[in-house]
Amino acid sequence: MTKSPAPLRRPAVARTLKALDRTIAGFRRKHETVALVPTMGALHAGHLALVRRARRAADRVVVSIFVNPAQFAPSEDFASYPRRLAADVSALAEARADLVWAPDAKVMYPAGFATRVAPEGPALAGLEDKYRPHFFGGVATVVAKLFGQVRPDIAVFGQKDYQQLKVVTRLAADLDLRVKIIGLPTVREKDGLALSSRNLYLSPEERGRAPVLHRVLAECADKIAAGRPIKATLESGAKALARAGFVLDYLEARNAETLAPARSVKDGPIRLLVAARLGTTRLIDNIAV
């Protein structure tokens, strides 16, 4: 007689710093390593891949779920950003997370909060920062707080937000935060579209066109790798995206480590980065050359 599988253990959920400290202290008493996966919730397969990578890297996995108001401009989608904590916790049980850190804004930014992190270096590369100048200050501030609250040995981020990954890596190094940053390759749909919580905003017709973004990016990477001039290749790619109905913010070739502009393959290793709107939805992606 075969045994039925053991029921999944739902991760504990901490909503206060006191509850978080109590649980983390329990891990540390057992000399267990801790990995953190910071998220804003509305979890998809890409997030769960980060959790599984964290599980391989540490004894315990903490997933933070916090829609951070500090990284949204007044004109952006903070109020409508999808929030579904119960479904997220169920998904994290499947991925074997140990703890969900889900504070509200009053816990993260209590009355009198007056300190913010102002990152430079990769945060001022003229990519996301050009179109969302508030963004990386909000990201750096909340990530610094999360690292201080959870005190992880490891933190796992996706490469889809490539500039953000570089900003966080620089933040941890510059502030001696004693956390190892792991970047995980972008998880994609079968048609190449990078997984994103904002994909939920796409209409069915827009969803059908959305994979063109990655397709054009991959074609540009192939041409540059084959020796075609970077400037002409990106200009051709921008025209292809416009024909597909995208409104382009940027399509850039950058040094993969410094994010400095790359004008030839000699400026490599090269990363192509793109951001464009399809209808009201802003999509980003990147690829190595």
TrEMBL record:
Highest taxon in the source lineage: Bacteria
Catalytic residue list: H47
Annotated catalysed reactions: (R)-pantoate + beta-alanine + ATP = (R)-pantothenate + AMP + diphosphate + H(+)
Subcellular location(s) of the protein: Cytoplasm
Entry's EC annotation: 6.3.2.1
Keyword Transmembrane: no
Cited Pfam families: Pantoate_ligase
Gene Ontology BP term (one): pantothenate biosynthetic process
Stored SUPFAM superfamilies: Nucleotidylyl transferase
Keyword tags: ATP-binding, Cytoplasm, Ligase, Nucleotide-binding, Pantothenate biosynthesis
Binding site for beta-alanine: Q71
Record: residues binding ATP: 40-47, 158-161, 187, 195-198
One GO CC term, this protein: cytosol
Gene Ontology MF term list: ATP binding; pantoate-beta-alanine ligase activity
Top EC class for this record: ligase
Primary location: cytoplasm
Pathway: Cofactor biosynthesis; (R)-pantothenate biosynthesis; (R)-pantothenate from (R)-pantoate and beta-alanine: step 1/1
Chain sites annotated for binding (R)-pantoate: Q71, Q164
Family designation: Belongs to the pantothenate synthetase family.
Note: The reaction proceeds by a bi uni uni bi ping pong mechanism.
UniProt subunit comment: Homodimer.
Function field: Catalyzes the condensation of pantoate with beta-alanine in an ATP-dependent reaction via a pantoyl-adenylate intermediate.
Protein name (Swiss-Prot/TrEMBL): Pantothenate synthetase
Source organism: Rhodoplanes serenus
Source lineage: Bacteria, Pseudomonadati, Pseudomonadota, Alphaproteobacteria, Hyphomicrobiales
